[in-house]
């Protein structure tokens, strides 16, 4: 069955960087677009960005120019490079596949604080 495992989160100071990973299994990863979402404390989950099977990316305005999504189809893994981090980027980050609408992994916590 579909499994998504997010990793790479942590505590970082404002202006710092983190690289998140999403390891996928249970489906033909290379055939599908993949997305990143995040959920800040007390807020609804929000879309961060996505990458097509061919590597075309699209981002939410709040992260455009600071975050970069990439993927390695040979490793069934998607990445989220986050630069110039701000306190408002704090939250749990999730990856998502469109073939499992109700499935969410455990996420990885990102905390941006001095």
Give me the secondary-structure topology.
Elements: E1 3-7, E2 10-12, E3 18-25, E4 34-39, E5 46-51, E6 57-59, E7 67-72, E8 77-82, E9 91-96, E10 108-112
Parallel strand pairs: 2-10
Antiparallel strand pairs: 1-3, 3-8, 4-5, 4-9, 5-6, 7-8, 9-10
What does this protein structure show overall?
- 0% of the residues lie in helices and 47% in strands.
- It is built from no helices and 10 strands.
- The strands form 2 sheets. A 6-stranded mixed sheet has the order 2-10-9-4-5-6, with no helix packed on it. Strands 1-3-8-7 form a 4-stranded antiparallel sheet, with no helix packed on it.
Q: What oligomeric state is this?
A: single chain
Number of DSSP-assigned strands: 10
The major beta sheet can be summarized as: 6 strands, mixed
Which residue ranges are poorly predicted, with pLDDT under 50 across at least 5 consecutive positions?
none
Descriptive labels:
114 residues, mainly beta, six-stranded mixed β-sheet, four-stranded antiparallel β-sheet, 10 strands, 0% helix, 47% strand, globular
Summarize the structure.
This protein has strands at residues 3-7, 10-12, 18-25, 34-39, 46-51, 57-59, 67-72, 77-82, 91-96, 108-112. The protein is mainly β and 114 residues long.
